[in-house]
Amino acid sequence: MNLGMNDECAQACVNAGFDARWVYDSYRRLISMFGDVVEHLPKQDFERALTKAKETNNARYDTELDAEALKLLCGEFKDIYAKHGKVFEQDAMKQLEQSVVAVLESWNTPRAVEYREINRITGLRGTAVNVQQMVFGNINDNSGAGVCFTRNPADGADETYGEYLAQSQGEDVVSGVRTPMGLKAMAEAQPKAAEELESVCDALEDDFKDMLDIEFTIEDGELYILQCRVGKRTGTAGVRIATEMFAEGIISKDEALMKVNAQSLEQVLHPVFLLDAASPDYSSKIVASGLPASPGAAVGRIVFSSKEAKEYKSQGKPCILVREETSADDIGGMYAAEGILTARGGMTSHAAVIARGWGKPCVSGCGAISFKNDREIRFGTSDRTYR
């Protein structure tokens, strides 16, 4: 993302009259992502530097940092390279070449191998790389990025389902660094783009004949579709989507049957709770609430890392994985846990999408969580500590 940006390009963009805040926001994103994905530098080093910059500038979110703060952050990010004996690559073509190699090599990383084993993906020889022209959802207030599904992946309802984050780039939405707005709120802020998105969803679903997961960017009011793929869904949603697509004449009866696997049917047959939310007996036991990212219920000990979740699983002990936000590195722990709880992120965040695909309960965007340290949490203003 943002490949080609370097010191010379950044200065040239500022000199040409482009918004300096956008320039250095894009540059710092490239430096940190390139460091993580290509140079394999510790991601937490960049996260700590960003957190410190926000604290110094009394900013809650990175969108509140001004151009000067972001320019200084670019320098601090380069210092992280130096600390590890590296130098940020200034040649744009070498940035591209090294990025392509990094993606190809990612096929054999432990987390990629683990993901394929969990999902029983076999017989593939490797991955491919798409190189696309950039569009910038962080260029101004009339821009943003989002993720949507052509049907509801939780219950299968025939409605466009998704989230949008103003003045952001795609990684912000799926990583859960900020909790995004729903598509209805987006339609109020971006009516033209929202109408176009609905039309695109209909066209793509008609072409692919399946429920799709779509990533998009709005650059200064103009909608761009970045990618689409068959969307992950719960078992209940899978049955409903297949049934309704057959009824609508989109797919044949045989195609509908092939879209519902044994795991999906097993999820549908699980018992469900009938709760009276207004009952004092129920409401008095709620310690916090968040977004219903993936339906279900789970019980287990709190764990704070993927490694710990896998250890509990190997010992036959149920656990709940609690994180600020999840990433691809947490795949094994998410699979091992009975349920997932995150402090940040929305209904289309990494945790939400993966959990729905596996039929695991997930509550995301639980803002009441405060992490005292890496072993304890509290909810809201309560003095009670959970560990």
UniProtKB/TrEMBL annotation:
InterPro entries per the UniProt record, alphabetical: PEP-util_enz_mobile_dom, PEP_util_AS, Phosphohistidine_dom_sf, PPDK_AMP/ATP-bd, Pyruvate_phosphate_dikinase
Pfam family, one: PEP-utilizers
PROSITE patterns xrefs: PEP_ENZYMES_PHOS_SITE
Domain PEP-utilising enzyme mobile: 317-373
An annotated Gene Ontology molecular function: pyruvate, phosphate dikinase activity
Domain Pyruvate phosphate dikinase AMP/ATP-binding intervals: 90-180, 192-247
Family affiliation: Belongs to the PEP-utilizing enzyme family.
Identification of the protein by name: Pyruvate, phosphate dikinase
Species assigned in the record: Ostreococcus sp. 'lucimarinus'
Phylogenetic classification of the source organism: Eukaryota, Viridiplantae, Chlorophyta, Mamiellophyceae, Mamiellales
